């Protein structure tokens, strides 16, 4: 038994042989090379997308594409805009514009809480880069649609519609959609959007977190009273576990809320979440987390590259708002994550992986869905992390 435990511990500490053996490029060169690679690789991806669909994954030799109302529909165009911004590749820009056109009807969609993912990651980047007023108008209309899901009694935006499982579910992922609301208010939109974002963030701090700053995935509310019915999970290992991507959503969400409000409560929350992640005994040496921090079978459990990419991007921003040892800690951890994701352990070869950049993400392990596959949002947050590093640290 001692030998087995020792072997498991060594695997956890090593993280990944490929990562450990990969020579490190200077970060400036790595970022430049990665965006050039992405421009070429996404030409492969573009060929695998049927008209009117958006790419999601690649599994068992088949490309997986979904309807535009799927929550991930904005990540492809958002990634293309990041690539275009760095490479000025005209073909990439043309594909980015076409991808925007595909999802444009989502601006009036009110079926779930994911309008921020769908419309801000896409049109937000497009407007930031091009300044086209029609893109700004679509963001504002999307914010109006998202605001319809705010429930004043609960003081939160309802994530999914009522079902046999949930009355008024709010998931930690919803923190990400607040960015569009904040931006819309700050850029000529209705002030109520930002008020909703702040109220939702405060309710989430109150009800979603444990004393160690880890987050539940789902909190279900009584829509008549606003009381918490139960705290549970949908994609995590257990109701009481720390689902890795959920911790990443929380980290990113409160860092972003501090950016828009400068409320120290949000900065404290973000730092607490960051320390929970980075000091967790089950975080491997390469800092790409297992799909859940409490997953069965660690260190042989599946990884989630999407969580690593998301955390890297969030930590780079959080380091901007911290000083001294915390700043160095967060930046160093993000660097490790970026180097890991760019290594052979997680990074695809040109022309492979269905055209996606990263391998080894996990969507919803308990549902046997998207396990150990590329995912479009892993690429998006990886590219965002690279762009942020270049902007802030080079």
UniProtKB/TrEMBL annotation:
Residues 1-20 form the signal peptide. Keywords: Hydrolase, Signal. GO terms for molecular function: hydrolase activity. It comes from the Bacteria. The keyword Ribonucleoprotein does not apply. Belongs to the glycosyl hydrolase 88 family. This is Glucuronyl hydrolase. It comes from Pedobacter zeae.
């Amino acid at each position: 038994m001692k030998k087995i435990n020792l072997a498991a511990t060594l695997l956890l500490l090593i993280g990944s042989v490929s990562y450990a053996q990969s020579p490190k490029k200077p970060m400036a060169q790595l970022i430049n090379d990665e965006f050039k690679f992405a421009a070429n690789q996404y030409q492969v991806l573009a060929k695998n997308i049927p008209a009117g669909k958006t790419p999601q994954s690649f599994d068992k030799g088949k490309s997986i594409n979904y309807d535009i109302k799927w929550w991930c529909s904005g990540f492809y165009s958002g990634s293309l805009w990041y690539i275009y911004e760095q490479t000025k590749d005209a073909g990439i820009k043309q594909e980015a514009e076409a991808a925007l056109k595909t999802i444009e009807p989502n601006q009036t969609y009110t079926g779930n809480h994911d309008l921020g993912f769908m419309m801000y990651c896409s049109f937000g980047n497009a407007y930031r880069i091009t300044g086209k007023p029609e893109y700004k108008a679509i963001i504002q209309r999307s914010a109006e649609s998202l605001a319809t899901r705010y429930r004043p009694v609960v003081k939160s935006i309802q994530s999914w519609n009522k079902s046999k499982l949930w009355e008024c579910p709010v998931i930690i992922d919803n923190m990400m959609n607040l960015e569009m609301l904040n931006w819309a208010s700050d850029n000529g939109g209705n002030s109520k959007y930002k008020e909703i974002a702040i109220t939702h963030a405060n309710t989430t701090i109150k009800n979603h977190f444990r004393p160690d700053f880890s987050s539940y995935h789902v909190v279900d509310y009584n829509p008549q009273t606003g009381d918490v019915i139960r705290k549970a999970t949908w994609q995590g290992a257990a109701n009481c576990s720390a689902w890795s991507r959920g911790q990443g959503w929380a980290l990113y969400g409160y860092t972003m809320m501090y950016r828009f409000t400068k409320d120290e409560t949000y900065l404290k929350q973000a730092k607490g979440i960051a320390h929970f992640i980075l000091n967790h005994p089950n975080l491997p040496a390469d800092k790409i987390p297992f799909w859940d921090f409490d997953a069965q079978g660690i260190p042989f459990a599946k990884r989630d590259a999407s969580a690593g990419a998301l955390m890297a991007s969030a930590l780079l921003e959080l380091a901007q708002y911290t000083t001294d040892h915390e700043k160095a800690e967060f930046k160093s951890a993000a660097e490790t994550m970026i180097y890991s994701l760019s290594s052979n352990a997680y990074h695809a070869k040109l022309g492979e992986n269905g055209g996606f950049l990263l391998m080894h993400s996990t969507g919803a392990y308990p549902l046997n869905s998207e396990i150990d596959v590329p995912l479009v949002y892993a690429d998006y947050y990886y590219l965002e992390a690279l762009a942020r590093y270049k902007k802030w640290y080079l």
